[in-house]
Design a protein that fits this description.
The structure is a single chain. This protein has two domains: 222 residues, Alanine racemase (TIM Barrel, Alpha-Beta Barrel); 125 residues, Lyase, Ornithine Decarboxylase, Chain A, domain 1, CATH 2.40.37. It is built from eleven helices and 18 strands. Helix content is 27%, strand content 24%. It is an alpha/beta fold. An eight-stranded parallel beta barrel has the order 2-3-4-5-6-7-8-9, surrounded by four helices. A six-stranded antiparallel β-barrel has the order 10-13-16-15-14-17.
């Protein structure tokens, strides 16, 4: 029998979030297409569940080639973008075989295409470096890179040439992405005649950017937005600013009580006796620990829900378990359900606050030993 901890993936919430985002985008000046970002095994939600849950998305984006191939094997016909591009000739051959679109961010990748022409033309996104200085070409390099890509397009190696960047501080409400956006389009307009611009996709906006700047873009180009964390119903912003959409958290992490103990004043709890009972109390042991992905370091405000009632976590989180205070509850039994996070007052955003982290980390760190169960019915 497996351990009782499981992540329940609410497929209706996935579909709901896609529709909410698409409805939001219909009000945008440029009517951008919607790319669902499902890297890191769909932020811990299991890529397989996104095939139906995110069926309303126009395309998908992943990091690993294995993720892209899995989508094709699940029958996905839509465009799939490899966000970090390819690493070697084997990857390039898979791009050709499975018709995957790829980011190109180094001269090495362009050279690999040039010297190993694919059997079928492949579509590329030229990555533009932003202030993040992570991946991409400098704006000053763009005309030279585009020229190389055009030559390979004329030879039939490359199908479509598109463009992308990533804003590193769009979740900072004091950061303005518009000046760099203007620089990008100014450079593109100098390279590409007006009558040819509609052939090219430009993708600039991640979750935070598309919420703050729904009209970001240029009328001469096709625009695509990349919805990551908001697709899973979580907030890309600090808690002081709520995402302005009625999103629903997709993942619910639950477990069960596996032991109940009575303590006297002075009794210690957990490693290094970090918690000392100040009075008689009753505690429960929950089958959930940091090896399941729950953060080990949480503050004194951290709690879980038992019978829909908050129960404070006490002592240090263990590898496989945690202890909680149930003194205030009656009729708690072995194997009663425990909600570690889900919707309502206790979400992954909340747990991120407990651990001085971000919701991206909370959901994507859910480990393989946690059973991932789809729930297609919950509203």
């Amino acid at each position: 029998m497996p351990r009782p901890i499981q992540s329940i993936i609410h497929l209706n919430a996935m579909s709901h979030n896609m529709q909410v985002i698409k409805d939001f985008l219909t009000k945008s000046t440029h009517q951008p297409a919607l790319c669902a970002v499902i890297k890191a095994n769909a932020y811990g939600h299991d890529i397989e569940h996104t095939v139906n849950g995110f069926a309303k998305a126009d395309m998908f984006a992943v990091i690993q080639m294995t993720e892209a191939i899995r989508l094709r094997q699940y029958g996905v016909k839509k465009n799939i973008l490899l966000l970090a591009g390819f690493y070697d000739l084997e990857d390039l051959n898979h791009i050709d075989q499975y018709q995957i679109q790829t980011m190109v961010h180094t001269q090495f990748q362009l050279d690999l295409i040039k010297h190993n022409p694919p059997k079928h033309p492949i579509s590329i996104y030229i990555k533009i470096n932003s202030e993040m200085n992570r991946l991409g070409f400098e704006l000053s390099e763009l005309p030279h890179i585009f020229k190389q890509a055009k030559i390979m397009q004329d030879k039939g190696y490359i199908d479509q040439i598109h463009f992308a960047t990533h804003f590193p501080s769009s979740d900072n409400l004091y950061n303005n992405v518009l000046p760099f956006t203007d620089q990008i389009f100014s450079t593109l307009n100098q390279m590409i005649p007006k009558e040819e611009r509609k052939k090219h996709i430009v993708t600039l906006a991640n979750s935070a950017t598309l919420l703050r700047y729904p009209n970001l873009g240029h009328p001469d180009y096709q625009m695509v937005v990349r919805a990551g964390i908001i697709s899973y119903g979580l907030n890309p912003f600090p808690k002081s600013f709520c995402a302005p959409l009625p999103l629903k958290p997709v993942m619910e992490l639950t477990s069960q009580i596996i032991a109940i103990r009575s303590l006297q004043a002075g009794d210690p709890v957990g490693y290094n006796s970090q918690f000392i009972a100040q009075q008689p109390m009753k505690i429960a042991v929950v089958a959930a620990g940091y090896a399941d992905g729950y953060p080990r370091e949480v503050n004194k405000n951290a709690y879980v829900l038992v019978h829909n009632t908050p129960c404070t976590i006490i002592g240090k989180i263990c590898m496989d378990s945690m202890m909680i205070d149930i003194t205030h509850l009656e009729d708690v039994q072995l194997f009663d359900s425990v909600i570690l996070f889900g919707e309502g007052v206790l979400t992954a955003d909340t747990v991120a606050e407990f651990s001085h982290s971000i919701p991206y980390t909370i959901v994507s760190k859910t480990t393989e030993r946690v059973i991932c169960t789809p729930n297609p019915t919950k509203d």
